[in-house]
Specification:
Length: 299
């Protein structure tokens, strides 16, 4: 059974009022999301067992594709990776005897796209990479109206937002729409990408649901002048609204290979140590917030 919750203003209550003098409040515009994340049904956000199993099977199939004997597709992937990792010297292989970029590259749209994406990693003073970027942009623009719709869309997307300038998952979502129209698409890779994206989206939606509900509960407390009966009631909401448990995972970011999957699983399991640090962070934030609101008389 789904529970419908509407974020309507609760009536003013005199129960458990702990604010003797009404304080000035600040008017904020309504959330652009409305009540979307307050309406929760488990079938929309819970990751099912069969989805996890299918995700793992497809992941193994993709690994097999990458480990298989290289074909043109694999060579292109390797080309992009090599260009990005090896730097300027590699680009000389794309030049003719006159030191200009070989015009034969124009007939290979995927090769041009790879060259364009790799050239994005240039730094000031790298003339070869500047030439590569100018060359690839010029010819990609000229090819937009000459290639299939899927390739044309891929070119437009790349020119508007190169891979390294976009958010990975946002770019992936936009590229999925283009890739599934590609006649040379790999069904295993496409299905894995779709499922992987959907599972992550479910995780994000559930996280947003939890924190939005906590914000909503605190908003009702403030509106009604209600004080939680005890610390346990308060912490059930306040620890979530602090966002610290979600933020704690960033403590592991940047540590590279020192951090294992088990470490992320541990911190995501909300162990006693994580919960304890979340409570400390919540209380420190409350003490700082109390000082600010006391000075400004703002809820």
């Amino acid at each position: 059974m789904s529970i419908q919750i509407c974020a309507l203003a609760a009536p003013i209550s005199t129960k458990n009022v702990g604010i003797e003098n009404a304080r000035r409040s600040v008017t904020y515009h309504p959330s652009v999301w409305g009540d979307y994340f307050l309406e929760y049904t488990s079938d929309l956000t819970d990751i099912l067992t069969h989805e996890e199993q299918e995700h793992q099977i497809l992941k193994e199939e993709v690994n097999k594709l990458l480990a298989a004997t290289p074909d043109d597709f694999a060579h292109k992937l390797d080309l992009v990776d090599s260009i990005q990792r090896l730097g300027v010297g590699v680009f000389d292989k794309f030049k003719d005897k006159q030191g200009k970029f070989d015009e034969s590259l124009v007939s290979n749209v995927q090769g041009l796209l790879s060259l364009y994406e790799a050239a994005q990693f240039r730094v000031h003073g790298e003339e070869t990479l500047e030439e590569a970027l100018t060359f690839s942009i010029t010819h990609l623009n000229s090819l937009i109206l000459q290639v299939s719709n899927s390739l044309s869309g891929q070119i437009r997307e790349a020119l508007e937002m190169p891979i390294h300038k976009t958010l990975t998952r946002l770019g992936a979502r936009r590229f999925l729409s283009i890739y599934q129209q590609d006649e040379s698409q790999n069904d295993i890779l496409l299905n894995f990408a779709k499922l992987d994206f959907n599972l992550l989206q479910k995780m994000h939606q559930k996280e947003l649901y939890n924190i939005t509900r906590a914000y909503f509960e605190e908003a009702k407390w403030a509106y009604n002048g209600y004080l939680p009966i005890d610390m346990e009631e308060y912490m059930k909401v306040a620890v979530t609204s602090s966002g610290y448990i979600m933020l704690s995972t960033t403590c592991l970011v940047g540590m590279g290979e020192l951090v294992t999957k088990e470490a992320f699983d541990w911190i995501s399991s909300e162990s006693i140590a994580v919960k304890g640090s979340a409570i400390i962070a919540r209380l420190m934030d409350d003490m700082a917030g109390h000082g600010v609101t006391s000075l400004n008389s703002i809820i």
